[in-house]
Amino acid sequence: TNHDETIDFNEFLFLAAVGNRTGSLEERLDIVFDLWDVSNDGLLDQNELAHLISAMYDRAGVKNRQGDQDPHKRAKEIIKKLDITGDKKLNKDEFINGCKNDEVIRKLLIPDP
Question: Based on the structure, what is the number of domains in the chain?
C-alpha cells in the first residue's frame, strides 16, 4: 500500500495479482493481465497499462511522476516495445512473453511482493 492505512482499488488489484507467490511467473502474469484488462476486451491499452504502472509507483512510494517516470509515457514505451501485432495494445501473449523476456519491464510491472 501507499502507507495511508487504506487500500484503494489499484492497491487491491496489485495485491491480488502479485501477492500470490504460489503460481509460476506465467500464471502470475496471466492473473495480472486479467485483473488490469478492465475493458474485458482481451487487450491492455495505454490507459490500462498506465493505471498498472501508477499502482506499482504507489506501492514503491514513487512521488515524482514527471518526464521518464510519467505512467502514460512508460505505458506507451512498453507497448511500443512489446506490441507485435501493431495495434498499439497488448494482447495476453504479447504481455506475458514480453514480461518474461524483458527483466526491466517484468520488475516494473510484477515486482517481488
Answer: 1
At 47, the amino acid letter reads N
Residue 29 in 3-state DSSP? helix
Please state the rounded mean pLDDT for residues 28-39.
89
Q: Which three cell numbers stand for residue 36?
A: 488490469
- CATH number, position 42: 1.10.238.10
Sequence-distant (≥ 6) Cβ neighbours of residue 30 within 8 angstroms: 92, 96
Q: How far apart are CA 110 and CA 113, in angstroms?
A: 8
Q: What is the pLDDT of residues 73-113, one digit of tens each?
A: 999 999 999 999 999 999 999 999 999 998 888 887 776 65
3-class DSSP state for residue 85?
Answer: coil
8 A C-beta contact, residue 20 and residue 71: no
Which three-class secondary structure state does DSSP give residue 91? strand
Provide mean pLDDT across the span 9-32.
71
**pTM for the whole structure:** 0.78
